[in-house]
Design a protein that fits this description.
The protein is built from twelve helices and six strands. By secondary structure, it is α+β, with helices and mostly antiparallel strands. Belongs to the sigma-70 factor family. ECF subfamily.
């Protein structure tokens, strides 16, 4: 097997590691490309290409993550990860860990960890690397990595909901939610939302948003129903699909360009959080991006005409 073939075989794993560390499709792809350049230029024949490449992409991602933290402190509004439609790495033996770790909620919990804790958790708990491999990847002793893993697990476990929905329940609830949204059924929406549901939007200060943050079933149901009634009249439609391993949707304009993506967090039989990403910089990998300002102006004209 050539070096290029070895790399291509491992590319899905490398991207999946980098995305979980960075929460960015674009930055993860850049990290993988830089990993290839280092692999290609290396004169050493590595005993394990997987161990070497995983270590390289991890170190690159840690460096990017450290600089990204400063950028995120200056970010306008709520920062959310870039939406991921498909995780390219598949491992049936770790399918549960892989699916859970790519959710928006899990990625936001990972944001609370230090870069080293995050790297150790992802390599050890998500991808099942042994501590010798983890230690080599992050440049720390095995004992130090074990301590980092314990701290990271404690933080992650403390932030998870106590009762998560199974996949069937999530999908059924999401289908009812989008049906109610399509029909403008405020009461139907309200029944599906937790009393303290949060609607959170990430526009990065670059596009108009429904709201940066709304709390409460009544407020959220009314806002969604009113807003999407107007948007539907100007050709906006939503395509229910899995986003970051959870029920969600891609919202598109009449030309099929991407306006925003949604993810729904479900627990205790209700939708607890609705997160939308409309920052155009985070949507380019999903498809051609819509003109959010033009759509908002058109929707406002429709509301004025109806009122």
């Amino acid at each position: 097997m050539t070096r290029a073939e070895e790399f291509e075989e491992l590319r899905p794993l490398l991207f999946s590691i980098a995305y979980r560390l960075l929460g960015s499709v674009t930055e993860a792809e850049d990290a993988v490309q830089e990993t290839w350049l280092r692999f290609e230029s290396s004169r050493t024949r590595h005993r394990s290409a997987k161990a070497f490449l995983s270590a390289v992409v991890t170190r690159i991602s840690i460096d990017v993550l450290r600089s990204a933290r400063f950028r995120r402190e200056e970010y306008v509004g709520q920062w959310l990860p870039e939406p991921l439609l498909t995780d390219p790495y598949e491992d049936p033996a770790r399918s549960a860990e892989l699916a859970d770790s790519v959710s928006v909620a899990a990625l936001l919990l990972l944001e609370r960890l230090s870069p080293l804790e995050r790297a150790v958790f992802v390599l050890r708990e998500v991808f099942g690397f042994g501590f010798p491999e983890v230690a080599s990847a992050v440049g720390r002793s095995e004992a130090a990595c074990r301590q980092l893993a314990v701290r990271a697990r404690r933080h992650m476990d403390a932030g998870r909901p106590r009762f998560e929905a199974d996949r069937g329940e999530r999908d059924e609830l999401a289908a009812r939610f989008f049906d109610a949204l399509r029909e403008g059924d405020v009461e139907g929406l309200r029944e599906l939302l937790a009393a303290d549901v949060r609607l959170v939007g990430d526009g990065g200060g670059k596009v108009p948003q429904l709201a940066r943050s709304i709390v409460g079933a009544d407020n959220t149901a009314r806002l969604l129903s009113m807003s999407f009634a107007a948007l539907a009249r100007v050709g906006v439609e939503w395509e229910p699909r899995e986003v970051n391993g959870h029920p969600g949707a891609i919202v598109r304009d009449r030309d099929h360009k991407v306006l925003t993506t949604w993810t729904l967090d479900v627990a205790d039989g209700r939708i607890r959080t609705i997160r939308s990403v409309s920052n155009p910089d985070k949507l380019a990998h999903v498809g051609p991006v819509a003109d959010a300002w033009a759509i908002t102006r058109a929707a406002k004209r429709v509301r004025r005409a109806a009122g």
